[in-house]
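[User] I wish I could look at a protein chain and see how it folds. I have put the entry right below:
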Amino acid sequence: MNDSLANSTLAKRRQALLIRRLVRVVEHYRTNTDEAIRAAGFDDYQGAHKQVMFHLELGGNRITTLAERARISVQGYVERRADPNDGRAQIVTLSPRGREFFETAIDILEANEREVAEVFGPAHAVVQDAFRRLVEVIDPQGF
């Protein structure tokens, strides 16, 4: 098989991947969300903040749990407090600014979701349910 044909075949296989389309959609909304968050007054927001915010339980987390979930060191929009169940540990929770950020981000994400629902129409509920089930399999903690 010549290089041109091999590249064409590979390109077709790549184009057919649902996961590739999903990644492209995620990247679109990630960029859209980042810009909207900055426009909402969180000009100190960095992409790394979402690694903390999307993995932080509203009641707080231990630093080690948060860092493990986010795959980063803990930083920004959060504060530490003593774990009431273990004096040696600390809980990471949203600071007042982090709470404001979180609420703004949820508003923006809900607007994005409405846009997706408009495009998908009635299929949106089916897709939403399929992804809910997929996440239950890949993330059984379901935080």
